[in-house]
Specification:
The complex is a heterodimer. Chain A is mainly alpha-helical. Chain A contains 16 helices and four strands. Chain A has a domain of 248 residues: Cytochrome Bc1 Complex, Chain C. Chain B is 60% helix and 0% strand. Chain B is built from 22 helices and no strands. Chain B is flat, with a radius of gyration of 35 Å. Classes of the chains: A mainly alpha, B mainly alpha.
């Protein structure tokens, strides 16, 4: 920054004397982002972060009108989208952005898996990322119920029922989540608390740690690129080159969110009725569909184990294994590609895509 | 009397038949029974009752066997004993005997209570008041008796969907006789009743939509006390399900006029079996079913019909327009639940106006129409506002997209400039 006598220059000097901005700028100007054929995947972490920021901003605006409660939630959302200026826009952007955020998180996670970016020394970056991914699913699950509409009510009922089959902790966990035996207004206020206080607090903390790790350690390189001679490696400055590209992509994503919000505003549906029979077409959010469909396919019993329990345990073990990938991928630890893990990764992606499609098409 | 050797042969056949029956019969209460054993070995009509009784027959399932209706002694292996007059054997009962046979149990409350506490026991008494019962008493051997509707062997409970008296099956059961032109002509009855009923709103609802709430033949004509409704009865029968229309009619000037002219109330416009879905053009003075059938130009009633038709038409047209606008707004993703509430009010008012029309009172119909018009206008305004909102949103998106695009291009140019250095 030019140390001129202009107002901007004076302000910079004032801030620099107190917060040592020079060192931050020096760090940013020295930081580089590798350029290779997989570089495009670097942008999805930033997109996920950008969509999270949209979530926080629109979420705060929604809070100005949203009133949690079985008698007020639906009505307050209805009031917001019909009577409040741009209320429909805020809610639609919040809903679309949430879904795109989960999608971006999926892409970010799988791209890092396939490029083995979790290799030492970035094990904890992967683990904090996994934590953030689970939290984003938690945001989706808890937020889905908040408008207190029919589909969300029954989907939450089914979703929390599944939690109840976990051995030992399932039943108490179900009671804890629902605030009782059944999904009621108590569940709604509880989910509201998770959605606007507990999850954002943990998420913000984890994002700070995750981003700090990336800044300190730099971007992970694919195995093949890391083995190139230094003179054959290409890179771009993080600031401003990479940041400008990030911002361009963010603006593009913002426009997509706006288009979706205008042309496909998020439906409110019918208010939940606790005594009504479940309507046809009860389905979870798309990112839970592959698990939901798998559980539906499982027989009632496999040998001596209940099918649903087996499914839940299977997904639990898979998630644990996925989280511990940095420690399980031995070739990766020594900088070698791992064909077996790549195969498992492709299998997982195929499984998720196929089961999601089956879930939406098979009636 | 059979000769001795033939009697021994017959007894041997019966003995073998009884042993075979004991080995293979699945119904314990029906096992040691010479009726079943012998008839089971026969063919055609003589074997059919045994086969039918084994098919979930309500009587067999409660331990009743052939002798309960036909008399005789099924414990005897000797047909001359088991089917003897001394043992009360009736053979095939005549039509006249059937109600009496059924009444032996079904008209006895104490007896029936053992099997079905809720089952009525007045069927026998009612039957003799019906056209069927009266004809039978008069000596007709063609009148329907219990078995013509319920079946004889293989009788199913009335609440079994396979039963011929289950609501969905009743019209087809009645049709068996009432579509027989020769039989109906002998009794001066039309044979097209089923055809007309099946094309009417009630028949379509019951037979095509399987709506068991829709009336079958017995819901208007009664079942055991079956008798065609008389002059006063028609409105009473219709009133059971259409009380509002009926009450409105009773307060109208038509009631007195119809009575004086001997016109059957509801039937005058709606017919009886071929009941068509009422249309708004039945109002007014044009068309086959319209008020123009009786009223001619210049009469007060004629003008009233014209006026009521205009009012109802105005509400229907406004409601259709409002529904279109709300639908268009909804198609564009606009939240229209409040507009839908207004639409429902308008729709309800239209239905009420069509019901209120039976009063032929312009003022009463007009008041309902006016309330509906207010609701329809509110709905239409919401729909228009929704469509305008969508246009505003699209315009806003267009402006925002242009600004974002300009910003993206500016940043891209800046990036290129930086990277060229």
């Amino acid at each position: 920054m030019e140390k001129s006598s202009t107002p901007q220059g004076k302000l910079y000097r004032w801030l620099n004397e107190r917060y040592h901005l020079d060192s931050v700028i020096h760090f940013a100007s020295k930081k580089e982002v590798p350029i290779h054929r997989e570089s495009v995947w670097y942008y999805f972490g930033g997109v996920t972060l950008f969509l999270f920021i949209i979530q926080v901003m629109t979420g705060i605006l929604l809070l100005l009108y949203y009133r949690p409660g079985a008698d007020t939630s639906f009505e307050s959302v209805q009031f917001l989208i019909t009577q409040v200026q741009f209320g429909w826009l805020i809610r639609s952007v919040h809903s679309w952005s949430a879904n795109l955020m989960v999608l971006a998180a999926f892409i970010h996670m799988f791209s890092n898996f396939f490029t083995q970016s979790y290799r030492p020394p970035r094990e904890l970056t992967w683990i904090t990322g996994m934590g953030l991914f689970v939290l984003s699913l938690g945001f989706g699950f808890s937020g889905y119920l908040l408008p207190w509409n029919e589909l969300a009510f029954f989907a939450t009922k089914v979703g929390t029922d599944i939690v109840g089959v976990v051995p030992f902790i399932g039943e108490p966990l179900l009671i804890f989540l629902r605030g009782g035996e059944d999904v009621t207004g108590a569940t709604l206020t509880r989910f509201f608390g998770f959605h606007v206080a507990v999850l954002p607090m943990i998420t913000t903390l984890l994002i700070a740690i995750h981003v700090a790790f990336v800044q300190v350690q730099g971007m992970g390189e694919p195995v093949a690129h890391s083995k190139l001679a230094p003179e054959k490696k290409r890179a771009m400055p993080f600031f401003p080159n990479f940041v400008l590209r990030d911002v361009i992509l963010w603006l593009f994503v913002l426009d997509i969110v706006a288009i979706l919000a205008v042309f496909f505003p998020w439906e409110l549906g019918k208010k939940a009725d606790l005594f009504a029979p479940a309507p046809a077409g009860i389905a979870p959010e798309w990112y839970f569909m592959f698990m939901f469909q798998t559980l539906k396919f499982l027989p009632s019993h496999v040998l001596f184990i209940e099918g649903e329990l087996l499914g839940v345990l299977g997904f639990g073990l898979a998630a644990l294994g996925w989280t511990l990938v940095p420690f399980l991928d031995r070739p990766g630890q020594s900088g070698q590609p791992n064909r077996l893990f790549r195969f498992f990764g492709l299998l997982a992606v195929s499984f998720i895509i196929v089961m999601t499609i089956v879930g939406y098409t098979l009636k | 009397m059979l000769p001795g050797t033939d009697r021994i042969k017959l007894r041997s056949v019966i003995l073998v038949a009884i042993i075979t029956g004991l080995l293979f019969t699945p119904i314990s209460g029906f096992a040691e029974n010479s009726c079943r054993t012998c008839h089971g070995q026969l063919e055609g009509e003589l074997a059919a009752p045994v086969q039918a009784m084994a098919q979930n027959d309500v009587h067999a399932s409660r331990g009743f066997s052939c002798e309960a209706c036909h008399g005789g002694d099924p414990t005897s292996e000797d047909p001359e004993v088991s089917m003897s007059a001394q043992k009360g054997f009736l053979g095939v009962p005549s039509a006249r005997q059937i109600p009496e046979i059924c009444a032996r149990c079904h008209a006895q409350p104490e007896f029936m209570r053992q099997y079905n506490v809720g089952l009525a026991t007045d069927q026998y008494e009612k039957y003799w008041t019906s056209r069927h019962g009266i004809a039978l008493k008069a000596g007709s051997n063609e009148a329907a008796t219990c078995i013509d509707c319920h079946g004889s062997h293989g009788v199913l409970p009335a609440n079994n969907p396979q039963s011929p008296v289950w609501p969905l099956n009743v019209p087809k059961t009645c049709r068996r006789c009432h579509e027989d032109e020769a039989l109906m002509s002998r009794h001066n009855l039309p044979a097209n009743t089923y055809k007309e009923y099946s094309q009417g709103v009630h028949g379509v609802a019951l037979l095509e939509k399987n709506d068991i709430g829709a009336p079958a033949c017995n819901d208007c004509h009664g079942n055991h006390g079956a008798t065609p409704p008389g002059f006063e009865d028609v409105a009473q029968v219709c009133r059971g399900c259409h009380p509002a229309n009926s009450e409105n009619f009773l307060t109208s000037p038509h009631k007195e006029a119809f009575d004086a002219a001997g016109i059957k109330e509801c039937l005058a416009c709606h017919s009886n079996h071929l009941i068509l879905t009422p249309q708004d053009d039945w109002l007014g003075v044009e068309g086959e079913h319209s008020c123009g059938q009786c009223h001619t130009a210049g009469e007060k009633g004629y003008q009233t019909a014209v006026n009521i038709r205009q009012r109802v038409d105005s509400l229907r047209n406004r409601e259709v327009e409002a529904r279109f606008l709300v639908h268009e707004a909804e198609r564009r993703g606009i939240e229209v639940s409040q507009a839908q509430d207004y639409l429902k009010l308008a729709r309800d008012a239209l239905l009420l106006a069509r019901t209120m029309m039976h009063t032929v009172d312009e003022t009463k119909v007009g008041a309902v129409v006016d309330s509906g018009l207010v609701a329809a206008d509110e709905a239409a305004a919401s729909g228009r506002q929704g469509i305008a909102d969508f246009r505003f949103r699209s315009l806003g998106l267009g402006v925002a997209s242009i600004l974002i695009t300009i910003l993206i291009i500016a940043l891209w140019l800046k990036l290129r400039q930086i990277e060229k250095k």
